[in-house]
Design a protein that fits this description.
heterodimer; A: alpha+beta; Ctag/Cox11 (Pfam 04442); four-stranded antiparallel beta sheet; disordered C terminus; B: Cytochrome C Oxidase, Chain A; about 65% helix; Cyt_c_Oxase_su1_BS (chain B); metal ion binding (chain B); transmembrane (chain B)
Chain lengths: ~190, ~525
């Protein structure tokens, strides 16, 4: 019987190749989902919840007044007009507040937009609860039309005492090309 | 088996098809030197533009391409391959092995590199220019806003990543399986130890880099949104993935350098290395810590305070094992019979300047202070103290130290010393003032600057030109040695040198240790 002398290092090599393949997979199947889970769970990086908050009857804390500021940005190459109706509101924690944002498609063709919210300071993100938000869905607009986009939110009573001002920033992106695809709404 | 008795093949095919660890090591070393000159040329363009305030020589877009390519070429083309070349040459000779464990793969891992870098360099001539997003290629600069040549950049990173992974697998397989009988782990020279640990780091993190560029590729061409907020992704995710690779990467660069000076300082102190075991454990500790400190590069992205504190304390902790190493090198020299040949000069230069770089690193690790230092020239000064005065000085020391063993010729000692002093002075003139302009607020990667930074920038440029010019002297000295250096035939070229590589003939024969050497069990590590 002929025995082929195996390289004594073969075993080591197979293990190391397996490790490098595993590390490549690790980036996709662990790091990316873990990052999203951590950001959502801890409310870090200014990420607010992507789902509507079902309001529980809450006591309005009238002893505190929080200033909520609204900022809008356009992503690069996004030509829409996009602005809040008011730039700042004074609210009491626990009180549901309504406001609207305006968007106008100034181009000559129908487009679909997606607004992405971000809260600053990022510590406030988990206490900023949106019961209704245009950012949960994509916003289609025909050429030269405009829309009022509603937002209803509650600032949680548990908001840390030292936070007096919360800034909510929306960036609007052109997602016309992707509009056909199912997207996780944020 | 008669195959093994004859010498190298003749002509070009020797280099194309070689499986000999010494040939492959030589090719790696020459290739990395060529890349060092190329990356250096890019640096000269940067410093020439910054010689005076205002826009003088190049367009801002081209300036950005220069900073990007300078970083990429120096990290992936010059420093990493030079230490792989050194590992190829020295590890088999240091552990008494006849060759690397996987000689054919060794050939392949070298020959992937030149096409990879050709692809990267070719982007300079493409429409839209070369990558201009910095060597850290943060998304969305490298995805949404990148020139079309970014795709070539991505495949170049893939190529050199595969090369590094194969090279590291080879090194681990060699060290774990091919040591001469009696060469236990705790008898291995420290250079072998540091490379073994480096190779494990490479196997763990190069695939992460490959993953990051693959995600970029998919975002750019296949409509995914890993790093695009519009589709539910996040650009900050890119930074986490990049630095999860990037921080171990800086130890990948510096650990072999630690190994080199741990060989050279004892040789010219004529004393065994102080604290051998603690050196091994310190190396392993640094390697472990490198995985849990990555976010100290991103203090300003808006992390929670708990995160800032964790990464701050973990980073500061690295100073402990690094301090152990510096202490051990100094203690090795303490009361030694010191002599100051060129390799020793570069090693001491390494020790002094790397320690300065380490201290500025400690300053940068302090999260609240980093908000001021972030993305300023202070950071540039810091990492050039550890990358150039750390890795490149130690590599230069290694070339002078082992060149007589490789070639059988002695280099010109006076010219070597002149090279050291010009390098040392030039380097410090170039990079020390950058601490000051950085603290005063000069941002990095910008082709113009405010007038108050003019004097320090002019100094910095002059120093950079001096340092750059001294490398021509280095090249001349090495070539002159190979062509017409004074012949040396002593097996032990340096009287204080220890280790198996000094027991073989000088110049080192094409094949060494075909019969494993006898290791004296009483003899401690070398």
């Amino acid at each position: 019987m002929i025995r082929i002398a195996a390289n004594p290092a073969l075993d080591t090599v197979i293990k190391l190749v397996a490790v490098s393949c595993a590390m490549f997979a690790f980036v996709f199947v662990v790091m990316v989902p873990l990052y999203d889970v951590l950001c959502d769970a801890l409310g870090i990086n200014g990420k607010t919840s992507g789902e509507a908050y079902s309001a529980v009857p809450a006591v309005v804390d009238e002893s505190r007044t929080i200033t909520v500021q609204f900022i809008t940005n356009n992503a690069a190459d996004m030509p829409w007009e996009f602005a809040p109706s008011v730039t700042a509101l004074k609210v009491h924690p626990g009180a549901a507040t309504d406001t609207v944002f305006f968007a106008e498609n100034v181009t000559n063709h129908a487009m679909v937009a997606q607004a992405i919210p971000s809260v600053s300071p990022s510590r406030a993100a988990e206490y900023f609860l949106k019961t209704e938000c245009f950012c949960f869905n994509q916003q289609p607009l025909d050429a030269k039309t405009s829309a009022e986009m509603p937002l209803q939110f509650i600032v949680d009573q548990e908001l840390p005492e030292d936070i007096k001002t919360i800034t909510l920033s929306y960036t609007i992106f052109d997602v016309t090309e992707r509009a056909g695809e199912a997207l996780a709404s944020r | 088996m008669g195959d093994h008795s004859h010498g190298p093949a003749k002509g070009l095919s020797r280099w194309l098809f070689t499986t000999n660890h010494k040939d492959i090591g030589t090719m790696y070393l020459w290739f990395s030197f060529a890349m060092f000159i190329l990356g250096g040329a890019f640096a000269m363009i940067i410093r020439a533009e910054l010689f005076q305030p205002g826009m003088q020589l190049v367009e801002p877009g081209f300036f950005n391409q220069m900073t990007t390519l300078h970083g990429l070429v120096m990290v992936f083309g010059a420093i990493m391959p030079s230490f792989v070349g050194l590992a190829n040459w020295m590890i088999p000779m240091m552990i008494g092995a006849p060759d690397m464990a996987l000689p054919r793969m060794n050939n392949w891992s070298f020959w992937i590199l030149p096409p990879g870098f050709l692809m990267l360099a070719s982007t300079l001539f493409m429409e839209g220019g070369a990558p201009a997003f910095g060597w850290t290629f943060y998304a969305p600069l490298s995805t949404t806003y990148a020139a079309p040549s970014v795709t070539f950049f991505i495949f170049a990173i893939h190529a050199l990543g595969i090369s590094s992974i194969m090279g590291s697998i080879n090194i681990i397989a060699t060290v774990m399986n091919m040591r001469a009988p009696g060469m236990t782990y705790m008898k291995m020279p420290l250079f072998v130890w540091t490379w073994l640990i480096t190779a494990f780091l490479l196997v763990a993190v190069m695939p992460v880099l490959a993953g990051a560029v693959t995600m970029m590729l998919m975002d750019i061409h296949f409509g995914t949104s890993f790093f695009s907020a519009a589709g539910g992704g996040d650009p900050v995710l890119f930074q986490h993935i990049f630095w999860f690779f990037g921080h171990p990467e800086v130890y990948i660069i510096i650990l072999p350098a630690f190994g080199v000076v741990s060989q050279i300082i004892p040789a010219f102190s004529r004393k065994p290395l102080f604290g051998y075991a603690s050196m091994v454990y310190a190396t392993a500790a640094i390697a472990f810590l490198s995985f849990i400190v990555w976010a100290h590069h991103m203090y300003t992205v808006g992390m929670p305070v708990a995160g800032e504190l964790f990464f701050m304390y973990a980073t500061m902790l690295i100073a402990v094992p690094t301090g152990v190493k510096v202490f051990n090198w100094v203690t090795t020299m303490w009361q030694g019979a010191l002599s100051f040949e060129t390799p020793m000069l570069f090693s001491i230069g390494f020790l002094v300047l790397f320690t300065i770089g380490g201290f500025t690193g400690l300053m940068l690790s302090i999260a609240p202070a980093d908000f001021q230092y972030h993305d300023t020239y202070f950071v540039v000064a810091h990492f050039h103290y550890v990358m150039v005065a750390g890795a490149v000085f130690s590599m230069t020391a290694a070339v002078y130290y082992w060149l007589p063993k490789w070639t059988g010729k002695m280099y010109n000692e006076s010219m070597g010393k002149i090279h050291f002093w010009i390098s040392f002075v030039g380097f410090n003139i170039a990079f020390f003032p950058q601490h000051f302009v950085g603290l005063a607020g000069m941002p990095r990667r910008i082709p113009d600057y405010a007038l108050q930074f003019a004097d320090f920038n002019m100094m910095s440029s002059i120093g950079a030109f001096i340092y750059g010019a001294s490398q021509i002297l280095f090249l001349y000295n090495v070539v002159a040695t190979i062509v017409g250096g004074k012949t040396v035939s002593d097996e032990k070229v340096w009287d204080g040198a220890e280790g198996l590589e000094w027991t073989v003939a000088t110049p080192a024969p094409y094949h060494t240790f075909e019969v494993p050497p006898k290791i004296d069990p009483a003899h401690a590590h070398s």
